[in-house]
Amino acid sequence: MLTEKLDQIDRISLASLPTPIYPLKNVSRELGKSIWIKRDDFTGVEMSGNKVRKLEFSIAQALKEGADVLITAGGIQSNHARATAAAAARLGLCSHLVLEISKDPDTEGNYLLDQMFGAKITLLDENGDVSVSEKIEEIAEAYRQEGKKPYIIPVGASNGIGNFGYLNAFREIMAQEEKLGVTFDAIVCATGSGGTYSGLYLGNKLFDRKKKIVGVTVCYNKDHFTEVCGTIVNETLSLLGESPDEDKDFTFIDGYKGLGYAISKPDELRFIADIAAKEGIILDPVYTGKAFYGLYSEVKKGTFDSCENILFIHTGGQYGLFPKQGQMAEVL
Predict the structure, then answer these.
(1) Active site residue: 48, 78, 158, 198, which one?
(2) How many C-alpha atoms does 231 have within 13 Å on its Cβ side?
């Protein structure tokens, strides 16, 4: 019954799925645990990373409503904004991005790609008097006055409809477990807007798999995400015609956001370089680098002693490494 309900939710095909899962043998040997990775950075090139899974559902809703302009927001190196712009270009839609800045940005990384995909871009001073939501609504109203039909996608596409992306990813993981002959005791992901974690959490709960779903916070803290993810989960349950989740058992780990969102410390960058040398995998400095650093450290602390097989979700974001090339060169 649940599978039938999920299959009835409108979705468009954007991502290359399923993404592979394989063991990180060198890290596993070092930590004395069976550490696996799911390469959601393989969902595509232009739309690589976790955001595209959510956009498959958000944009399907936009098209159903007859939208011709997609509006969303993020930081100057937002993976979500870049993926939205790429998807809009593929589908023949316009995209308008509101990107928060603290200084004039260099044209590099995701910001360069945003422009290549033809997105209209509004730069917003993150310390200014106008909020992101106010600016987005102002832009949307201007499009309405032109006779267009804008559709607003929240940051990270992290809401009830976008949440189906990782609820379905959980189904994908279950099928891969059966094929691989392994059962993951824990699934770990970076938590920045809450949509990836919320989908995995809800999949685990609805399919009664009793896994430990762990979000390593890369901004804000566990109290913030307990509220945010609670809202997202209940929005999704409402869309499925299910009752609200009154017994949420979220697991978030704080302490690894470092100096702040998208701000890198030398030890974080050294860790990214170390994992690249050990496993041939590139983590990003905003999400996966900090989250995998958190997983690595917490395994050593004993937080995962009850878990033997641990799956880490690589949510992409490697384009964000290039604006850090100067800092990276200093630690190599």
Answers:
(1) 78
(2) 9
